[in-house]
Each structure stands twice: as structure tokens, then as C-alpha cells.
Amino acid sequence: MKHSLFIITTMALISAFVIQGCDRSSNQMEGTETSVIEAERDRDVEISSSDLQAEVRVYRQEAGNKIMKNNRTIADIKREIESKDSDVRDAHTVRVEELERTNRDLKRQIDNYSHTTQNHWNEFKSDFRTAMDDLGNSLDDFFTTTTTSSN
Q1: What's the pLDDT tens digit per position in 20-64?
Q2: DSSP states of 84-115 as a string?
Q3: Residue 121 domain-assigned?
């Protein structure tokens, strides 16, 4: 009896160690799988981050070109309003200064943008594009709208 109790106890302990060892390797497998998944996710984030950085860099270049074009248009408008009489020239000068300020603000916005997420970038880009288009339209229609509004 003593001998069989010893064998049963020994078998129970061995079984407990085997089961615990299997559980430990199972946890290690889950930990390894989790590490692999996290590493893949981090790699994808790094790739998308570098893609986002490249997209921001290209967009900054395009916006810079449009801002330089706006500066040239503003300079042309300034030359043209010099030939106007003083009342019209004063009204045009005030409007040109507003447009110059808007152009500088847009340049500062695009230069100071720090990219965070793709969604934030898309929202910024949409708002920026709208503001840039509005400024371009204002410059294109400068003499039409200021002449109409001063009558």
C-alpha cells in the first residue's frame, strides 16, 4: 500500500510538471506570435510614416511653387495699380496687402506642418488646398471684384 501510494504521488507530480511545462511552452509560443505581430505592425507603421513624410515633402514643394506664383501675381497687380488714380490705388493697395498676408500665412502653415497621422494630413491638405484655391481665385479676379465692389 505504501508502495502504490508513493507511485501514485510520483505519477501525479510528474504529470503536473509535464502539464506545467506544456503550458509554459504554449505561453512562450503565444508571446512569440504576439512579438511577431507587433513587429510587423511597427514595420507597417514605419513604412506608412516614411510614405507620409515623402507625400508631405512633395506637397510642400508643390505648394511652394504656387506661393511663388502668387507672389509674382501680387507683384504684377502692384505694378498695375500704380497707374490708377489715388482713390482707386488706395482701395486696391488695402486689398493687395490682405492677399499678401494670406499668402504669407499659407506659406507659414505648410512650412510649419508637422505630420502626425494620415487622417490628420488628409484633413490639413484639404483645408490648405481650399484656402490656396480661394487665394488663387481672388488674385485672378482681383480687378474684376475690386472694380465691381468700388462702384
Answers
A1: 766 565 566 666 667 767 666 655 555 578 888 899 999 999 999
A2: S-HHHHHHHHHHHHHHHHHHHHHHHHHHH---
A3: yes
Give the predicted TM-score (pTM) of the model.
0.63
47 is a domain residue: no
Whole-angstrom distance, CA of residue 54 vs CA of residue 113: 13
Q: Cα 77–81–87 angle (5° rounding)?
A: 140
Q: Which three cell numbers stand for residue 9?
A: 504521488
Q: Tell me, what amino acid is at 74?
A: I
Per DSSP, the three-state class of 1 is coil
**CA 49 – CA 115 distance, rounded (Å):** 9
Between CA 42 and CA 136 the distance in angstroms is 41
Overall domain count for the chain: 1
Distance CA 136, CA 50 (A): 31
Kindly state whether residue 2 falls inside one of the protein's structural domains.
no
